[in-house]
Design brief:
Length: about 260
């Protein structure tokens, strides 16, 4: 299924003020993969994600979705294929009610009213937010907003799901619920995150960015064991891989720290 493939070929991007965002990024993501994109602030994660659906266009090199290069000519098909959930859910929620927000995308595809309503119901049910359909978005919690933002993307039936810091600002319960939800999705997923524990839960492969370059690309568990790589990229090991500061051990059964002591 070539339309599920995301490929960057020597991708460069420089902002109008001269700030370099990406410097020769190359990778290939195939159908059904879940990829974590990690790196310090300013490493280029958000810049890269915005190239996947044409919010930014390459200064040099190429981003491809399936067989189509991401260009102004192909934006309609690219944005139907790639659904992006922004870091700030308020950037995606602007209609009077949750139902209206989730319906906005399908309506703009020119779908019949019955099909739009069907997609809204299914998307809200998938994220467990059917009960919020009549609520105004500004009255939702951060976790509820994140769920609804995901529903707005799912209603467009994308082949590829791209998410920017999906667990930021979430309380522990909302974070866990989101991880459980994302585990059920069969989309190709690209998740930019500082939450390396979530990356271990969801992504078998990780791409590490540093100063706009790919410095590592491989199995998540292996990369996160590489202390030198993490230090060089200004990252820390996931909490479950760190030694307990009290007893100095790591739980061998489930690979998580001991959290209570006599």
């Amino acid at each position: 299924m070539s339309h599920h493939i995301v490929e960057a070929r020597d991708l460069h991007y420089t902002y109008s003020d001269g700030t370099i965002g990406l410097q020769g990024v190359t990778f290939r993501i195939t159908h059904g993969e879940s990829i974590a994109l990690v790196g310090e602030n300013g490493a280029g994660k958000s810049t890269l994600l915005m190239h996947t659906n044409g919010y930014l266009l390459a200064s040099r090199g190429e981003m491809r979705i399936g067989d189509a290069p991401v260009t102004t000519h192909n934006l309609n098909i690219i944005r139907r294929t790639v659904g992006m959930v922004f870091q700030n859910s308020d950037d995606q929620l602007f209609m009077p009610t949750v139902f209206d927000d989730v319906a906005f995308g399908p309506m703009n595809l020119g779908l019949e009213k019955a099909e739009v309503e069907k997609r809204v119901r299914e998307a809200l049910t998938t994220v467990g937010a059917s009960h919020l359909s009549k609520r105004p978005p500004y009255r939702l919690s951060q976790g509820e907003k994140r769920s609804v933002a995901i529903a707005t993307v799912l209603a467009m039936s994308p082949d590829i799901l791209v998410m920017d810091e999906p667990t930021s600002s979430l309380d522990p319960t909302s974070r866990l619920n989101l991880i459980k939800l994302l585990k059920t999705f069969r989309h190709t997923k690209i998740i930019a995150t500082h939450d390396l524990d979530m990356a271990m839960d969801l992504c078998e492969r990780t791409i590490v960015l540093h100063e706009g370059r790919v410095v590592a690309d491989g199995p998540t568990a292996e990369l996160f064991k590489d202390t030198t790589l993490l230090h060089r990229s200004n990252l820390e090991k996931p909490l479950r891989m760190q030694q307990c500061p009290v007893c100095g051990t790591v739980d061998k059964l489930n690979n998580t720290n001991h959290r209570s002591h006599p």
